[in-house]
Amino acid sequence: MVIGSRALVGLAMILVISGPLLVPGQGTCQGDIEGLMKECAVYVQRPGPKVNPSEACCRVVKRADIPCACGRITASVQKMIDMGKVVHVTAFCGKPLAHGTKCGSKSIY
Asked: What CATH number does residue 47 fall under?
């Protein structure tokens, strides 16, 4: 079951970051999509405790265009990922979201 939910979260992250399917008229976000899926999905998925991400996840996060990815998070994707965990992972990895950034339906303050 863990692998199934992890794959679902990974697929959601791929759709969020890679394609204009979710937000028409916008280009793709830069970064290692497969790396985010492989290394970071477990740290942002629902349910579960908030835990610090691995060094491998942080390496991928540092290369990703996180604000761009945040702009692509739909309500259906947000049902699978915990936005508080997304904020925690980016901050822990040294790439915190700027105040006022909207990530999915969550505004960062």
From this structure: 1.10.110.10
